[in-house]
Amino acid sequence: MPVLDFIVNYIIPFLVILTVLVFVHEMGHYAVARWNKVRVEVFSIGFGRELFGWTDRAGTRWKFSAIPLGGYVKMFGDANAASAGGDGLDTMSPAERAVSFHHKRVGQRAAIVFAGPFINYVFAVLVLALLFIFAGQPFTPPKVGTVVPGGAAAAAGLRPGDRIVSVEGRSIERFEQVAQLVRLHPEDRLAFVIERAGRRFSLTITPTRSVQTDRWKNKHVLGSIGINPYSPAEVRRVQPNSAAAAAGIKPGDRIVEVAGEKVLSFEQMAKIIRASPGKEISVVVIRAGRRLALRATPKPIEIKTKDKPTVVIGQLGVTRRLVDYAKHGPATAVWQAVKETVSMTRATFTAIGQMIEGSRSTKDLGGPLRIGEMAGQMAQLGFGEYIWFMGILSLHLCLINFFPIPMLDGGHLVFYAYEAIRGKPLGERAQEYGFRIGLALVLTLMLFVTWNDIVHLTDKMGLFR
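The chain above was modelled as a monomer; its predicted structure follows.
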């Protein structure tokens, strides 16, 4: 890939997302600090040498720095960007103490620190809510369309037409929720509640472990039970010069009968069509409320199979809409966004727990290189996918910062909790050692995920093989 294309397709999308999320995070700290009358000396996007900036009336220096991998807010009394107490805190004048971060009550300091990651969580909810308002929320009813023979679902007794009510005690409203839970639990026994013909009963299904490759050749180890969602035989697109086009089938038509057989799903329709190559058959559709009888001759197509060299099947030449999107009003969109964000939070902690116990590979952890790659991929898919990825990354930035590790916001909150309980802060030497340990942990994690990124990219590009 030419250097200019790489910069435009990957570097710029990554830097835009990072800049927005860092700004949101640091603005949380800044806003609550100002609310508590703390003087903020520096608001920086990036680290290192200042590239450009300005100073506002309150004396805050707003700047962009040379290393665009983060940012910080430096408050009056801080010795550095990590909010360590500077020298001279004990000799400050009353006026200086009034605007010093380190002289505020422990609750105020905790609120200022908490606000950074919390606003990232709020931002994730806001991004998803806006997407649900303007683009819609992916929504597929939790009804089984097809069951793959020999799969985990088939072995457990799941049938086409079954509605999935709950998985592991979690109520299911959309098929997407089922897919998310199953992907996270390869080879784990999952309790399903199924509704069939008005009767509810329980099934235990163990997803198989499968390796799936996406369009960018990224490999993912996921759970699978071998089901597809139910979809009505509604035509989304008609291929030019196809049997459907010759028969007069149009986008928006709902196929209700094929070759004299009633059709309840797209899969059922496709099965009949595949069995009728070159044979003229009747096709009944509903169009704008009217029932129309058409005639179609599925085009014979040769395909290769494992059992036979070639098999001839029929092709009508229509496609369906794989995912439906339900648009919501503002209030419903926010509620659905909160539920989605909570669900993704659970999924994140589940994945982390699986890594700790050893049932999931730590190769799934990615760093700046992987994030940059994914940002570019999402940007190429479209604006909606790019904004969705920004929301997900904002959520993960929140969760990472809440980890109880010194150097991170969560570590500061642990120190403040100790201070609130004991009535006095942790000793300076203990805090210093804590920050050193925290720095070592953060640097170790950064090296580990960067190594993962390098291995991932070299494997993807086929190097060293």
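The chain is about 45% helix and 25% strand.
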